[in-house]
Amino acid sequence: MRPFGERWRAPYACDPGSSRGRLYPEAISPTRSEFQRDRDRIIHSSAFRRLKHKTQVFVYHEGDHFRTRLTHTIEVSQIARALARSLGLDEDLAEALALSHDLGHTPFGHTGEDTLDECMRAFGGFDHNAQALRVVTRLERRYADYDGLNLTWETLEGLVKHNGPLLDAEGRPMPRYAERGVPLAILEYNTLQDLELATYASAEAQAAAIADDIAYDAHDIDDGLRAGLFRIEDLREVPFLEALLREIDERYPGLDLSRRIHELTRRVITRFVEDVVAESDRRLAALAPASAADIRHARETTICFSPATREAEAALKRFLYVHMYRHPKVMEVRRQADDVLRDLFRRFKADPLAMPEEWRADLPTDDETRLARRVADYIAGMTDRYAILEHRRLFDVTPDLR
């Protein structure tokens, strides 16, 4: 295994000098690569700033040390860059994808996505990956020449396909889209710029995707413990975590709880990252890719956990699902958040004039689908606190979400 700090470039890495370009051609920057420009545009976007006040996972009380979508995104970015450097990938592309992966998320965490999806069921549904694509190609309005951020093909395909192909070789939706089809926003954009929906994304996109899982796993343990949703000893029912706790206790007997938690979460990240690098190296050696295209046309994901660690990570997620995501106190807040967003959707759809002028401009009142999508775009872009303020403006009683 190569030293983690060593920097090198592999032949299967995406090359910013050979990018497939942007939908709207632009002059090359003399000071930044194409992927650096993408990263910078994402950081300076309005949608990125709003992540500061969007819930990551609800806990039953507020606190300055719990993760938001923004702090989660920064942690994902750090892990994605570490993986990219170790595997010889383009760090700037991996970082751009990590920084943009949550731009389509709603207020109130996954509750918001579930609620908007149900509200939009008759109008094509709601999918946060498709919404992220809408954000960076249409909804951000900063530049004089075009809507969106005009990101490179590589960043857009990674944003859409980081969880794998959307279509099979015959053009049929993959199993996760079999029932409802690939989101319309993705299919519509694909007619403008072919993102090759039947292939895998780049190794950089795959690194960003698994970095998301690693960050989630580690910080949800941390947040869940600090919120009192479960005890550190409860984690011993997960064999992977029990082994780490035993290791910590043997080396640091009597360690105070705060440091013990941190020692656990840092070991979770380290073990997962080391495993991904080792397993990815094994797969890369077997595949022997000579270009980024070889990664895209592989028969399976290239950047991933080993089978044993994949099972350990799945067991960790099962623990968190029961003890955190479905904790009664968390579920009560989810119920209240669901009420807030349903109320807002119904109100704005029935009375578009209740939305700000920029959101109701050029909106035909006889096209129910376009109206519903506009309402969903508006609500999806809200922060938690703005959604609560809008609810208080329009309704007599607003839940306190505690």
From TrEMBL:
Gene Ontology molecular function: any one: dGTPase activity
Domain (HD): residue spans on this chain: 69-217
Gene3D superfamilies, per database record: Hypothetical protein af1432 (1.10.3210.10)
Signal sequence region: none
Pfam families, per the entry: HD (PF01966), HD_assoc (PF13286)
InterPro entries: dGTPase, dGTPase-like, dNTPase_2, HD/PDEase_dom, HD_domain, PHydrolase_assoc_dom
Keywords on record: Hydrolase
Sections of the chain in a coiled coil: none
GO biological process, one term: dGTP catabolic process
PROSITE patterns reported in the protein's UniProt record: HD
Family of the protein in this entry: Belongs to the dGTPase family. Type 2 subfamily.
Name the UniProt record assigns to this protein: Deoxyguanosinetriphosphate triphosphohydrolase-like protein
